[in-house]
Amino acid sequence: MEAYLEQRVAADARLAPAAQILRVIAATAVEMSSLIGLGQLYGRLGASRASTNSDGDVQKELDVLANDMFVDGLRRAPVAAVLSEELSETLALDPSAPLVVAIDPLDGSSNIDANVSIGTIFSVLPVLPGATSPDAHFLQPGRAQAAAGFVIYGPQTSFVFVLGDGPTQIFTLDRRDGLFYQALSSLSIAKDSAEYAINASNYRHWDAPVRAYIDDCVQGAEGPLKRNYNMRWVASLVAEAYRILLRGGIFLYPGDHRPGYGEGRLRLIYEANPIALIVERAGGVATNCVQRTLDEVPAAIHARAPLVFGSSDPVELVARYHSDPQFSAERSPLFGRRGLMRL
Ligand SMILES: O=P(O)(O)OC[C@H]1O[C@](O)(COP(=O)(O)O)[C@@H](O)[C@@H]1O
Ligand SMILES: [Mg+2]
Ligand SMILES: [Mg+2]
Asked: Which example biological process does GO assign this protein (predicted)?
């Protein structure tokens, strides 16, 4: 990985600060990977604490440990401020630094004790000239990101990132020497796929267009989409994103009618935006069901956003279900009934 970073910085010296942040995150991820690998031998990392995070979620031991480890690491990088899922307010670091970092230190917390893949997601933004508060740096649309990425701690620990205007990269940790090596030389998300990921237990809470799309997937070859689908739901965004990068598919976490879930569950700045950049730079599409995620202007530092991403064909199809109910009616005689009953 070092050779890749050096080569990019040699070609464009302006990438040096972001490259330094990637190095620090990679080094911290190596430590995280080995302690996660110890599981119960280290202690109950998945145990709940008495505390809650910025969003009211009960914090797990590993959420807090991961937050402390990454924040400590970022103190050694050119970072002006850190926004973390686990901190209610932004943390000011080096006021002369050119970049800020938003981070979900531990993604997929519900999977810690279950020995299922979990991860770390981060977004690097340039400081906003003339910002009147530390929060203002983070309230930029995701297209402004200077770098972004995630680490997945699974059977393999891999570091997936974008630096500057480069394409998505995947480097995998060789646990024998503690270094990351390039796993794939070029990455391109399949344009189409018959695999979808959604938490279907929320079906009754979804809006009509999401229900219509999933209904049509479930009908398979007998339905309007005329093909059989397969479903996955890991409940770790990093694991769904990694799978989709490798073999295509669509992920949906839409807004729904549960209290507090009008904008879904995922946070725009440190979950949706970095995943969206990685997906776009690998040829995929990411939206809030209708519009491009990277064009959304965050309303608040911990704001949520509906997130749909993956292969371009199904993601664009979901947008059509939302923007044009007639489209669904034409495709599916069932939608007429759905429309009458539910729209
Ligand atoms: O439990 P649900 O509603 O299916 O939500 C699962 C989603 O929540 C998350 O766990 C949210 O992330 P955190 O674990 O960082 O809060 C995502 O990784 C995952 O996609
Ligand atoms: Mg998360
Ligand atoms: Mg988290």
From this structure: sucrose biosynthetic process
* d(CA 199, ligand 1 centre) in Å: 10
Question: How much is the ipTM here?
Answer: 0.98
Distance CA 299, CA 235 (A): 26
Q: Does 163 share its domain with 220?
A: no
Same domain, yes or no, for 22 and 133?
A: yes
- One of 5, 15, 45, 85 is an active-site residue; which one? 85
Q: What is the mean pLDDT of residues 51-70?
A: 88
Q: Specify the ligand 1 atom closest to the Cα of 57.
A: 16
Residue 268: what residue type? L
Q: Do residues 279 and 297 touch, judged by C-beta distance below 8 A?
A: no
- 154 and 121 in one domain? yes
Partnered with residue 150 across adjacent β-strands are: 121, 160
Which of 165, 184, 203 finishes a domain? 184
Instruction: Look at ligand 1, atom 7, and give the residue with the nearest C-alpha.
Output: 235
**Ligand 1 mutation pick, 196, 253, 256, max ligand atoms within 8 A of CB:** 253
- DSSP result, 188-206: ---S--SEEE--GGGGGGS
3-state percent breakdown (helix, strand, coil) of the chain, nearest 5:
40, 25, 35
pTM of the model: 0.95
**Residue 184, pLDDT score:** 84
Ligand 1 proximity of 108 Cβ (cutoff 6 Å): yes
Which two structure tokens, joined as six digits, stand for 84? 């973390």
Count how many domains the chain has: 2
Instruction: Quickly list DSSP for 22-83.
Output: HHHHHHHHHHHHHHHHHGGGT--TT-EEEEE-TTSPEEEHHHHHHHHHHHHHHTTSSEEEEE
CA of 94 to the centre of ligand 3 (A): 24
pLDDT(45) > 90 = no
* pLDDT at residue 254, rounded to an integer: 98
The reply to whether 201 sits in an annotated binding site is no
- Confirm or reject: Cβ of 304 under 6 Å from ligand 1: no
Query: Which residue among 51, 67, 109 is best mutated to probe the pocket of ligand 1, counting the most ligand atoms within 8 A of its Cβ?
Result: 109
